[in-house]
Amino acid sequence: MGLLTGAGMMQASTQGRGKEMGEDRMAQLEEVAERPVLDLSDVHAPIVVEAVDVLRPVANKYVVRVRSRDGAEGFAVGNELHFGALYPILQQRIAPAIIGRDVRYWEECLHDIFLHRSNYKLQGLAFWLPLATLEFAVLDLLGRVSERAVPDMVGGFVRKGVGLYYAHNDRDRTAEDSVRRMRRNVERTGAKAVKFKVGGRMSRNADSLPGRTEAIIPLAREVLGAEMTLYADSNGSYDVAEAIRVGRLLEGQRVAFFEEPVPFDRFADTKSVADALDIPIAGGEQDASSYNLQWSLALDALQVVQPDLFYFGGLVRSIRVARMAAAVGRDCTPHISGAGMGFLYVLHFAAAVSNAGPHQEFKGVAEDIPWECSTSSLRPENGVVQVPTGPGWGIELDPQWIAQAKVLGPI
Ligand SMILES: [Mg+2]
What we know:
Layout: H1 7-14, H2 16-33, E1 49-56, E2 63-68, E3 73-77, H3 83-94, H4 106-115, H5 125-146, E4 161-168, H6 175-189, E5 193-197, H7 212-224, E6 229-233, H8 240-252, E7 257-259, H9 267-276, E8 281-283, H10 290-298, E9 304-305, H11 315-327, E10 331-332, H12 342-352, E11 360-362, E12 371-372, E13 384-386, E14 396-397, H13 399-403, E15 406-407
Parallel strand pairs: 4-5, 4-11, 5-6, 6-7, 7-8, 8-9, 9-10
Antiparallel strand pairs: 1-2, 1-15, 2-3, 4-13, 12-14
Helix pairs in contact: 1-2, 2-11, 3-5, 6-7, 8-9, 10-11
Magnesium ion binds near residues 233 and 260.
């Protein structure tokens, strides 16, 4: 059997030449993805993990704290949509694998965690999200100990100001109401790009409201103007034929990408849509498998790849995807779910990755988490947010808020 499986084999069996090209690219991307991401070679003292704690400062807010034997600490704020249900996986299946480990060699730890107690059998959001949260705390620890910002541990800053796009996610509003809200947000933030929903969300071609998709595409262009970058997301609403029809409407208004035109795990269908259209196809937010994204890039099924920094398992794995995308000349623009501090992690990704794309998804930063940042307001000015440059993620959580937090015991 060759390197291609599943959808890849189907593609390969119908196109001999495509098979060779795909296999060459698969091997090339494999090699790119295996290169080390973290470089702490000039940090000479071990940074050994003594404890991993899950803290709950208030209801439905979670913080992971990693403490070293030397008493240094790193923090990460959990994803509010899922971490409350998934932290037992961190406690039972992930944290035990790194107690006593020197996390200067985090990439080795990642692989060992994947094998620990056959954790690979859990692969999916439920495994990668708690691991990502732990990684964010580990990176904070490494940055604080080595006194450098996260981008300086993964190759250095390529930019310090990150352009954002505003995502309007409410497809139950009429086209007119949606566009009105997008315009208001653009006026408030200075965003130079917006994303709006088309279709009904995994809806087998049904629209969310009758005629909304046909209405919103030209209206967004008309109201937001010729200069605005527009993106559209169908959340897997269509079959191939309908996705191609809607994709042509998007092309007619110069929409810059079409996200998840078909259900996300229909890889060959996604490729069929991409082959038929000129508009770049975006996707990857649901993916847990690096191999799936490798295949999608190698076969040119996706022209913009969008791993979710939490769902996909953190910064290091996502940077590997970005490097694979760069090798085929594509952008890797991460997805981020919910508010919380997710955008902080996206900012650092975009600061360190040259092909992060021109605009990052912005859903705001948490106003109900007591953080301070001396190097950035973390708020958009003229559509750009400055990346914090202090150690680790460059923010400080209120020590009182942490000190009074409940430490959650194993379940
Ligand atoms: Mg999406």
